[in-house]
Write a structure and sequence with these properties.
Blueprint: H1 23-34, E1 39-42, H2 49-63, E2 67-72, H3 79-93, H4 99-109, E3 114-117, E4 124-127, H5 133-148, E5 154-159, H6 172-182, E6 186-192, H7 195-203, E7 214-217, H8 223-236, H9 243-252, H10 257-269, H11 277-301, H12 304-316, H13 325-330, H14 336-348, E8 352-356, E9 361-365, H15 368-377
Parallel strand pairs: 1-6, 1-7, 2-5, 5-6
Antiparallel strand pairs: 3-4, 8-9
Helix pairs in contact: 1-2, 3-4, 3-5, 8-9, 11-15, 12-14, 12-15
Bound molecules: adenosine-5'-triphosphate and magnesium ion.
Length: about 375
């Protein structure tokens, strides 16, 4: 097993031990898999969707063997690339030496792909050069049918699924839905971070995927559970951290998984045996300083009004009523309609998101570190 030097992971997934909570979500995913229900997993960025999928794969295989395939389609721009990526993922899952791998390679050869190997990772890549767009649909169907014919059940997790809504082929959702309906041995998780597009795909009565999956959303890990997780990992490494310090960490990072992990990782890495609030504050300052050049770049991407609005949202932390007189006057923002337009644009650029709570929702800056930097700088 890989030796873990820092228990607070900031990329990918290590193992159950370094993964906090998500018990309810995990049980739901297991239950859905056992009962043939496909799941849609929606959350804002960096709450831990991808890590949860990996954790789920691990748990699923404890019960019985499943073929679990994860593929992130964020970088794909059309059905061709989607199909090629799926073929490559299946191929990577079954090395040529193994019997199922051999069968898949033999089968794939009939589609006359161009095979290449990634220069850095050495992983196989697949390219199809068809003249007819329909051929990509046929290929996609046949790859999924191949998986459907396996003796072991298959779980296919398609991450950043909202990307299909942006493909030039407007029928991608219909094509996928039609194929999926015919499968008996392959189950799906469709996950995505663009809440607006994901809801359009799965909740609009006009769209093919309407009401075809069980929807699940992922938000903050409950603070008490996260607190225990942080305590345990510091204590296991003979570091004493006070309750106040952990509360400060969760508060400063808004309990937003990636940012909490990142701060804990850096605090752990500082080497102190007794990390306290003053040390934590200095680690926070270092994080913001390291990011400063990136944050300044954002200013070039926004209009001066959008930038001013961003600062105002940072100062409010949670903005419940962006068009209220009180907010507009406090930050001298002019007309409510201009604020609305600028907020929509900041949402489009994924700089601000709407956090939906039980009874009300508020606007917040996505990147917690950017929010803290704006608060400190302006
Ligand atoms: N429950 C958890 N316990 C501990 N660390 C976690 C947990 N969930 C996620 N993480 C860590 O937080 C970081 C961000 O998680 P992840 O990449 O899964 O989020 P995401 O929602 O998929 O983000 P994105 O929207 O950018 O794809 C990763 O380093 C991951 O290991
Ligand atoms: Mg992800």
């Amino acid at each position: 097993m890989k030796k873990v030097v820092n228990p607070f992971n900031t990329v990918g997934y290590i193992s159950e031990k370094y993964f906090c909570d998500r018990i309810t979500e995990l049980n739901r995913l297991l239950q859905n898999a056992r009962n043939g229900v496909n799941t849609t997993l929606i959350s804002g960025r960096k709450y831990g969707k991808s890590a949860l999928i990996y954790r789920f794969f691990e748990e699923l295989n404890k019960e019985k063997e499943w073929i679990c395939i994860y593929f992130d389609i964020y970088s794909t721009q059309n059905l061709k690339e989607f199909t090629e990526l799926l073929a490559a993922k299946v191929m990577q899952k079954f090395p040529q030496k193994e019997s199922m791998g051999k069968r898949f390679w033999n089968y794939l050869k009939t589609l006359r792909p161009v095979m290449t190997y990634d220069a850095l990772s050495g992983q196989p890549e697949v390219h199809f050069e068809f003249s007819q767009p329909k051929d990509y649909e046929k290929t996609l169907t046949s790859i999924l049918q191949f998986l459907d014919e396996q003796k072991i059940p298959v779980l296919l997790a398609i991450d950043e699924f909202q990307q299909v809504a942006l493909y030039p082929e407007k029928n991608t959702e219909a094509v996928l839905r039609t194929i999926i309906q015919t499968l008996h041995n392959v189950q799906f998780i469709f996950s995505g971070s663009n809440q607006h597009l994901m809801l359009e795909i799965f909740s609009s009565a006009k769209r093919p995927f309407f009401s075809s999956t069980q929807s699940m959303s992922l938000s903050e890990i409950p603070p008490d559970i996260y607190k225990d997780f942080i305590f345990i990992h510091f204590a296991e490494n003979k570091k004493e951290i006070t309750n106040e310090t952990v509360e400060f960490i969760l508060d400063w990072t808004f309990n937003h998984t990636y940012y909490t992990q990142f701060l804990c990782n850096n605090l752990f890495a500082s080497g102190s045996r007794k990390p306290d609030i003053p040390l934590t504050k200095s680690v926070c300052a270092e994080i913001l300083e390291a990011e400063q050049a990136n944050f300044l770049q954002y200013r070039n991407l926004l209009t001066s009004f959008q930038w001013r609005l961003l600062i105002a949202i940072a100062k409010e932390e949670k903005l419940y009523q962006p068009q209220s007189k009180q907010f507009i006057q406090k930050y001298k923002l002019g007309a409510a309609s201009t604020v609305k337009k600028a907020i929509d644009s900041l949402i489009d650029k994924e700089m601000v998101f709407v956090h939906i709570e039980k009874n009300e929702s508020y606007y917040r800056i996505y990147d917690v570190f950017l929010m803290r930097w704006l608060q400190r700088t302006y």
